[in-house]
């Protein structure tokens, strides 16, 4: 429980900073809109409302993710972070759709735009701040294995990119006098916002559906292969699931059939120690021990095996292709 609380502090600090800054920047963007009446600037201001809502829910999800396991949630509450990222992606997408419709209307029924340089200066400043906070959230999210912080950080970087594009567009409008560009720029930014919303929702849905993280599984298998011990004849049916910052691994290990239960327990504990010693996050393992068969002898490293039926010929290296299949390696 103490470790959970300690892990909460960097996440809580990061998201609180993001929330407070998002509120201030939202107010600044609406000030820019009211002095310019620019639809493109309104686009950026509207997305800031999403920033505030997303950061608010992200704070709650980070708190909930650290709540200990209970009877109703035996794997913990970590998956709420995926739901938080999904909600943020959905809000971003909705904002993008509304922006496109609003901009299309203003292309047909244009209105005067005022004080563009002043508005551009405010938007440029807010974009720069969002870029700094975005990188801070992404780095903290990677360190703490928090998809919520990463999602919020990427959202703020998206906001910074749209702000930069907006500043360039507003300056072009002022210099050329082509005020219809205001609506066109807004539509383009709306499309970009929708695309980033889709990417966020796609990743979060993958996490909620326990979609396999290929790179993560490869890292786990490489770790086992590098620290392989003679009694570990093969590993198969390996699966990995992430619940917030925690990782859960299921797999089958083939061990010599003549090992007693104490010896089997020692080997499984050694596997657990190696994985948690090399992993960047807390990992919970569920290992099923399989007994070896005579057909395993040709790739078994046990030198003093009392029941060997044929000599060792060659090691079968563990890869994502054989370790994830639900069969012993000699069945391939």
TrEMBL record:
Domain Cation efflux protein transmembrane stretches: 15-209
Gene3D superfamilies: Cation efflux protein transmembrane domain (1.20.1510.10), Cation efflux protein, cytoplasmic domain (3.30.70.1350)
Subcellular compartments: Membrane
SUPFAM superfamilies attached to this UniProt entry: Cation efflux protein cytoplasmic domain-like, Cation efflux protein transmembrane domain-like
Entry's Gene Ontology molecular function annotations: cadmium ion transmembrane transporter activity; ferrous iron transmembrane transporter activity; zinc efflux antiporter activity
Membrane topology field: Multi-pass membrane protein
TM region positions: 14-36, 48-68, 80-101, 113-136, 179-198
Organism field: Pedobacter psychroterrae
Gene Ontology, cellular component aspect: plasma membrane
Record has Transmembrane as a keyword: yes
Keyword tags: Membrane, Transmembrane, Transmembrane helix, Transport
Domain of life from the UniProt record: Bacteria
Database matches in InterPro entries: Cation_efflux (IPR002524), Cation_efflux_CTD_sf (IPR036837), Cation_efflux_TM (IPR058533), Cation_efflux_TMD_sf (IPR027469), CDF_Transporter (IPR050291)
Gene Ontology BP annotations: intracellular zinc ion homeostasis
Family: Belongs to the cation diffusion facilitator (CDF) transporter (TC 2.A.4) family.
Name of the protein: Cation transporter
